[in-house]
Amino acid sequence: MALVQIGLYHFLVLGTLLFCIGMYGALSRSNAVGILLSIELMLNGVNVILVAFAKYIDTPQELAGQLFAMFIMTVAAAEAAVGLAIILSVYRLRNTIQVDEIDLLKG
Amino acid sequence: MELAWLIPALPMAAFAIIGLLTRRNANLSSYVTIVAIGIACAISWSLFFRVLAGETYEAQFPWLALDLQRALTFGIRVDPLSAIMLIVVTSVSLLIQFYSRGYLYEPEEEAHAGQGHPEANPAYDATTHGAQAAAADVQAAQPADAHGSTAHGAARDAGTHGAGQHGEPAPLVRDPGFARYFAYMGLFTAAMLGLVLANNLLTTYMFWEGVGLGSYLLIGFWYRKPEAAAAAKKAFVTTRFGDFGFLIGILYLWWQAGTLEFTRLTELSESGGISTTALTIGALLIFMGAVGKSAQFPLHVWLPDAMEGPTPVSALIHAATMVAAGVYLVARAFPIFEHAPAAMLVVAFIGGFTAIFAASMALVATDIKRVMAFSTVSQLGYMMLGLGAGAIGAGMFHLFTHAFFKALLFLTAGSVIFILHRAGAHDPDDKDPLDPPRAQDIRYMGGMWRRTPITAITMTIAALSLAGIPPLSGFWSKDEVLLATYERATHGGGAIYWVLLLFALVTVLMTAFYMFRVVFLTFAGEYRGPANPEFIRESPLTMTIPLLLLAVPSILAGLWGAPQLGNGFGQLLEGSEFHAGEMNVGLAGVATVLAVLGIGLAWAMYYARSVSPEALAARFRPIYSTLLHRFWIDELYMWLIDKLIIGVSFGLAWFDQHVVDGAVNGVARGVGVGGDLTRGIQTGRIPGYALAVFGGLALIALWTVGSVVIRGRV
Known about the structure:
The structure holds two protein chains of two kinds.
Chain A: H1 8-28, H2 32-56, H3 64-94
Helix pairs in contact in A: 1-2, 2-3
Chain B: H1 6-22, H2 26-52, E1 57-65, E2 71-78, H3 80-103, E3 105-107, H4 108-112, H5 131-141, H6 150-157, E4 172-174, H7 178-197, H8 201-219, H9 226-257, H10 262-271, H11 276-293, H12 302-305, H13 311-320, H14 322-332, H15 334-338, H16 341-362, H17 368-388, H18 392-422, H19 453-467, H20 473-493, H21 495-523, H22 541-556, H23 568-574, H24 585-606, H25 613-619, H26 621-628, H27 633-678, H28 686-713
Antiparallel strand pairs in B: 1-2, 3-4
């Protein structure tokens, strides 16, 4: 049984799987910290796909994919910091971080 | 010629100076206006002589640039037409300013009692005051047992006068609005002179409205008198009604011709640059403005009421200037009318009809000023008839002579009113509200000939001139109008011009009759009114000198346009187009005979008393009361306003409240209901929103991929 040659499609499937798992988590979790973690997962799924495209597809801008990935990581770090800060504040105010109990936006 | 702009600017400056600086000093204020108009008058005369020598002058500056090519301009033009009007307006206005300095006084007690007379008792029995009532008033007026100011109230209650307890009439005090009066006079004269000088329709329109404003202020000068305030409003609103058409006409001509200058419009209409239809519409719309200002049927209703203003105002506004503005406008825009035969016919018909229509109402009016007012409307109809018959010379010549003798008539009427007022002609408290004040009612006059000879003689001269007795002014100009109508009728004008000629001839008879009805009732016989006959004395010199000065052109001005003397007026006005007309001796003879007949009839009825006017009135009661109520036109308009306009307004109000508001409120309510229905979707829970976002995204992705796949297969 020959080893399966790892190619672009595998990375794409991996990235898609990561994204979908993250999305499932973001939608199903009710803990705000869990949602934040799931969103990180989604971002990383996207990162994988970007880097894979950058590696396997010949373009004049070879580094574009990597650069996007770098940006996303930066933004994700910032988002995590801000998000955790918001969660902390919400917890102080409402004494919970269960998102289905935080429904101030209700019309 | 370059000084022409000063002519309207000076009276305007007088208005500003009085309003800002000298209004506390009545005497000084009046001199400011007199000096300003005097200089304007001198400039006008010098311009006139240069125009006589063949010069014209036109100047303008762009006022509002619309784009690179076109601009609305502001300009003046001095040509024969405007030069003639300039001298008429400034000269008459100047004399009237002098006269006003004497007129604007009132007996002292009036000033203490406030403006105007006490309101008449509305429950007063509305039977007509015949000779018996007048006789009773005379008897009540004779005893002068009242003494001092305390007796004044009692005397007035008894329906007598309160003046002159010690053999002297009550001392006169100056009207408190003296300075204001002269400021308004300056404003009005400035607007009128600007209107005369304007070289395009827009400038004309601006000053046109200025004239309207000036007349509003002057008619309502005694604004504490409710009738005067109402009359001012009526004059303003009625003329605005015509101005509305005028404004649309200006816009229409701008759209059709691209210019508003009279010279360019003339060129365009002569070269056929504008279609006849467009010219007709434009001419008729402009004529609407003229109908309003010149008080032609059906917008004549304001002028009789406008007599509530001071009499010199009536002389200025309703004889020489404002009402002449409409005629002048038609003459200015005459080339447009000339090339629109249908519009000419309308002008001629409105003019001819107004002439006879207004004259018939003058036959029965008892207010001396109202008779003059109807007479003015009627004479303006003559001018329009002359213009409509295609003779700009005839129309303008009648305007020219009419300005003098009608101003004189008004001023003499003012003199009569002033004299009677000063002599204590008070209204009884139970005066019929429909009756004119006693000091203006010709039924309560008489016998003033011996006591006030200057007023009597000058009014008789003016009346003879108006009646058209040769060789006075009115004869020549009226004859030209008649001749123009006659020529039009014989040269393919059609049957309508024969009818109009008949109207004009009947009007000659009526005019002579009503004028001499006034003259005989005022000056002949014995005094029948409530004033103390001892106190009826001639007006002061400031009033009689203008009367004498105006009597001169009333006699002589017509000779300028007499065919036998070469008709200098027509030559100047029509220039190269002038062709010397023969005098039609037959027509002039008929008109003169009719005028003499009218005077004779008045003499028989009101002097010799061989025909009883009361019996005639009783015999032809329907006609008499129709004329007395002015054909119920005012009532008709009131009815139209009450029923039609207010009815329609109620309908519109219902529509507004229920349909328009309903639609607006319905939309709001619909949105509210929709919000209530859909607010449940907004749970406020983040996962729900996130699900919607990602679900939507997934659907879009599926749809995109699906459509690519399907297209790929096909």
